[in-house]
Amino acid sequence: MSIQYTLRHATHPADCRSYDTAKLRETFLIEDLFQDNGINVVYSMYDRLIIGGANPVSQDVKLETFPSLRSENFLDRRELGIINVGPESAVTVDGQQFILAPKEALYIGMGVKDVTFHPAANGEAKFYFNSAPAHRNYPTKKVSLAKAETVELGALENSNHRTIRKVLINSVVETCQLQMGVTELKTGSVWNTMPAHTHDRRMEAYFYFELPEDQVVCHFMGEPDETRHLWVKNNQAVISPPWSIHSGAGTSNYTFIWGMAGENLDYNDMDKVAPTDLK
Q1: Bridge-partner residues for 220, per DSSP?
Q2: Closest to 181 (Cα-Cα) out of 153, 211, 207
Q3: How many CA atoms lie within 13 A of 152 on its CB side?
Q4: What is d(CA 24, CA 228) in angstroms, rounded to the nearest whole number?
Q5: How far apart, in whole angstroms, are the C-alpha atoms of residue 206 and residue 272?
Q6: Residue 53 is part of which domain span?
Q7: Is the CA virtual torsion 241, 254, 166, 174 positive or negative?
Q8: What distance in Å separates the CA atoms of residue 173 and residue 175, rounded to the nearest whole number?
């Protein structure tokens, strides 16, 4: 079996207050998403989101089911969002091939039987993906960067000048509950998602990439009045509970993918926290 999986259980915010660094990292940080010619996934009990990475280096890699899903195929009861975080590569979905340029996305609906990731012609193929439970089938759809809903926010003087590309949201593609997007920080900017916010209706996962190997991002999490932090390296991800803020500052500019699952598809449904109210 080419897929390796682990389970992460949900945590009460009151319990999180007592965690030391090792426990925080064990519970919320995903360090090893990519293995040569394989797939790694973490099955989170927060809205049952699956966070995964596919790394076809010298051979095709198929997305297989695993025992915790209790299903014949991975997508029998799920939907899937894929974003290419490597060079141009291909994904085959039930016999139809899709070429994905860097940062392009592919939505795959419930009921698809076969998803296969292919090596890249130039460089090492890497695909990041999220999967959430689904209640109906929506068509498979590729979303190029030109088709994404794109906004530019922040300013260099506040160290948060960034471009947000909403690739898998309901204004771009129909999904059951999954939403994903790509945020790129400009050179000289390091802050993301500030002012911070929470959204009890949805959990979130952050995947940090395009970060130099000798640089890091400090990801801030926790309740607004009881914050914690995780030091995150390139190609690592963080599980963000609904009750937690999700913000970060890097020692360099970087790019990250945000993925959400939960009760609604309202991107702007959030409870904002002023920077001066954080503790």
Answers
A1: 229, 247
A2: 207
A3: 5
A4: 9
A5: 18
A6: 3-11+18-277
A7: negative
A8: 6
Residue type, 89: S
DSSP secondary structure string for all residues of 152-181: EE--GGGT--EEEEEEESTTTS--SS-EEE
- For the chain, the residue count is 279
Backbone Cα Rg of the chain? 18
Range from 132-136, 143-147, 255-259, 267-271 carrying the lowest mean pLDDT: 267-271
Look at the alpha carbons of 74, 75, 79, 84 in this order and tell me if their dihedral is positive or negative: positive
**Is 229 marked as binding a ligand?**
no
Q: Model confidence over 101-158: pLDDT tens digits?
A: 999 999 999 999 999 999 999 999 999 999 999 999 999 999 999 999 999 999 999 8
Q: Compute the Cα dihedral for 7, 8, 10, 11 and give only its sign.
A: positive
The pair phi, psi for residue 20, each rounded to 5°, is: -85, 180
- Structural domain count of the chain: 1
Give the ranges where the chain is alpha helix by DSSP (H): 13-16, 21-28
204 is in an annotated binding site: yes
Residue 199 assigned as binding residue: yes
**CA-closest candidate to residue 152, choices 143, 144, 163:** 163
CATH of the domain at 79: 2.60.120.10
- How far apart CA 36 and CA 99 sit, in angstroms, is 20
